[in-house]
Amino acid sequence: MPSGSPLAFLHPNHEFERTMTNAFTPIEFQRPTILEFGNGTIGAAARFAERIGARRPLVISDPFNARRVDMLALPGAVKVFGEVKPEPDLPNLEKAVAMAKDVKPDLVVGFGGGSAMDLAKLVAVMCTSDVPFADIVGPEKVAGRSVALMQIPTTSGTGSEAGTRALVTDPVSQNKQAVQSRFMLADIAIVDPDLTMTVPKEVTAATGVDALAHCVEAYTSRKAHPTIDLYALEGARLVGRYLERAVADGGDREARAGLALASLYGGYCLGPVNTTAGHAVAYPLGTRHHVAHGLACAVIFPHTLAFNMPAVEAKTIAVLQALGLPEKGDPKLAFDATYGFCKNLGIEMRLSALGVPRDDLGVMADEAHAIRRLLDNNPRDLGRDAILNMYEIAF
């Protein structure tokens, strides 16, 4: 192609060329019907509940947020399931569903982090049917939903309020089971950054990197799409700008709002594109050793980012720029920069210090390598031995 051609500029950068080709790939966007975002928007919870005539709201929450359900000012006979675990398993879900069948709610509210919102999605679709959980695992196997669903995040990380997926650990196989359904999309999501002010700094740091991982993995995925790249890159930029500030001062309202938006954008990335190797490699840390999901993703983040860099160099450099890190096309330097970014937030980056035994690394590598729904979309093929190598370096 002659250099004077109007399309010549496309060709030196094959990354850009590939992504624009992806613009021809059909993509479906699903968003909560109503999104209320901003400081003080919590008042929308009562207004929505009144508008739909809710009389039997059921709030699905963790023990901390269960103690502050009154701030939602919900009408009627409010019931609370306040026993959501950090990495919810099948018995935890079954307990919540049993309570819901007893209460017969007309509105289910997820109030907490990603775990509470994930369980709320499942409770909303399971409380009016006798279909076993195993029958709805996978994409679009849920028949419908007849109760209203409201999602209110109190952390900035998962973006679960914006999506159609829920993850629950099977205690027998120790694997995360994913349910995806359009019927699990919230009727209203209320993102009030003021609710995140109480989050401790170590949780703020880890969940912030989880939000970053959602954005970066979607941005560099084989399924990456220009309609999502917009949210992914802006989400990374918001984390780069605000995460350190929010960790340093939990009461920084601007920083909290910036992170809440980054988390929401990360949630937008999950639906149509989803995550890749970072989450696959992080999952066994949570399912086998109860490392909190955000922390697991943070520990793994620099490893998979550097590994993937040769396949998506231009996009990785764009991520480094978004985070305010040196923009060098060298995987080793990219690793050092992002590892330092996480470590400077106070995140413990060594598996040995997180209670992961060295003799389990091989089994973890086997399990991570089997998560094909994520690994098949990684921009670079990641073998079992390469995963084990990541664990060993992280150890």
Key terms for this structure?
395 residues, alpha/beta, Rossmann fold, Dehydroquinate synthase-like, alpha domain, 6-stranded parallel β-sheet, 3-stranded mixed β-sheet, globular, disordered N terminus, ADH_Fe_CS
How many helices? The count is 15
Major beta sheet, specifics? 6 strands, parallel
* Unreliable runs: 1-17
Count of spatially separate domains: 2
Question: Layout of helices and strands, plus pairs?
Answer:
Blueprint: H1 14-21, E1 34-37, H2 44-51, E2 57-61, H3 63-66, E3 79-81, H4 90-103, E4 107-112, H5 114-126, E5 138-139, E6 148-153, E7 165-170, E8 175-180, E9 188-191, H6 201-219, H7 226-248, H8 253-270, H9 277-289, H10 293-308, H11 313-322, H12 331-344, H13 361-369, H14 372-375, H15 384-394
Parallel strand pairs: 1-9, 2-3, 2-4, 4-6, 5-8, 6-9
Antiparallel strand pairs: 7-8
Describe the protein.
This protein is α/β, with parallel strands linked by helices and 395 residues long. The protein folds into 2 domains: 34-196, Rossmann fold (3-Layer(aba) Sandwich); 201-394, Dehydroquinate synthase-like - alpha domain (Dehydroquinate synthase-like, alpha domain). Helices cover 47% and strands 11% of the residues. It is built from 15 helices and 9 strands. The strands form 2 sheets. A 6-stranded parallel β-sheet has the order 1-9-6-4-2-3, sandwiched between helices. The chain has a 3-stranded mixed β-sheet with strand order 5-8-7. A hairpin with a 4-residue loop joins strand 7 and strand 8 (175-180). Helix 7 packs parallel to helix 11 (313-322) and helix 9 crosses helix 13 (361-369). Mean pLDDT is 93; it is low at 1-17.
